[in-house]
Amino acid sequence: MHNIIATEFEPKRIIDNPSEDKLREWAMEKGGAITEFGNLSVVTQVRNRIAKFTEVVMGELEGEDSRLIHKVMDHLRDKEMIMLDRVMCHTPGFKRNCRVYVTADYPRIPLMWGNTLFPPEGGKPDFVTITVPEWPVKKTMVFPDSGMTLILGSDYKGENKKAMLRQVMYWAKNEGNLGLHAASKIVRVFRDGKLRDFGFLLFGLSGTGKTALSCHSHWLRPPERVVIRQDDVVILRADGSAIGTEESFYLKTENLEPSAQPLLYAAAISPRAILENVWVEPETGKVDFFDSTLTSNGRGMVKRGDIAFTDSDIDLEKVDFMIFITRRNDIMPPVVRLGPEWAAAAFMLGESIETSAGDPTQAGKSLRVVGTNPFIVGEEEEEGKIFLSLLRNNPGIQCFIINTGMVGGTDRGQKITHRDSLKMLEMIARDKIVWKKDEYWGYEVPVEIPEVDLSRFDLQAYYPEEQIKELSEALKKERLEWLCQLYDCYAWEIDTERKKEKNRKKEILPYISKHIENGIEVDVEILVDFFLKHKVVEDTEGELDIFLEDLSADVLEELLQLYIRENDKKKSKKLVGQRM
Question: Domain range for residue 100?
Answer without folding.
Answer: 3-31+49-175
